[in-house]
Amino acid sequence: MDTEPENADDAFELLLRRTVTNAVTSGLNSNVHRNDDIIARLMDYEQRARQERLSSQTLQVIMSGRRLLGE
Q1: What pLDDT, in 10s, does the model give residues 36-57?
Q2: Burial of 24 (C-beta count, 10 Å sphere; 0-12/13-18/19+)
Q3: Chain-centroid distance, C-alpha 3
Q4: Cα angle at 16 between 13 and 19, to 5 degrees?
Q5: SS3 of 1-59
Q6: Which is nearest to 17 in space by CA: 29, 25, 27?
Q7: Could you tell me the maximum CA-CA distance found in the chain, to the nearest angstrom?
Q8: pTM here?
Q9: Up-side HSE of residue 9: CA atoms within 13 Å toward CB?
Q10: Phi-psi category of 39—alpha, beta or left, where left has phi over 0 and alpha has psi -120 to 50?
Q11: Scanning 15, 47, 61, 68, which has its CA 20 to 30 A from the CA of 26?
């Protein structure tokens, strides 16, 4: 089974989802009660993802991250 992205857009979305996942994991592992800086960054990512019409999977990763961090 080939898991390589089909094109540059797919590669970008894969990288974005990994970046979001890593940021959320880092935020959850920190001692900070609320991770406002990470949440703000995720809000920016979500807005841009909607503007660029990225996949629903990418949007879901971003929105789930925000919820996990307490927003």
Answers
A1: 899 999 999 999 999 999 999 9
A2: buried
A3: 19
A4: 155
A5: CCCCCCCHHHHHHHHHHHHHHHHHHHHHHCCCCCCHHHHHHHHHHHHHHHHCCCCHHHH
A6: 25
A7: 41
A8: 0.81
A9: 6
A10: alpha
A11: 47
Structure tokens, 26: 């880092």
For residue 3, what are its two tokens? 């898991």
Return d(Cα 13, Cα 19) in angstroms, integer. Answer: 10
Domain locations in the chain?
34-71
Query: What CA–CA distance (Å, rounded) separates 5 from 29?
Result: 30
Structure confidence at residue 1 (pLDDT): 45
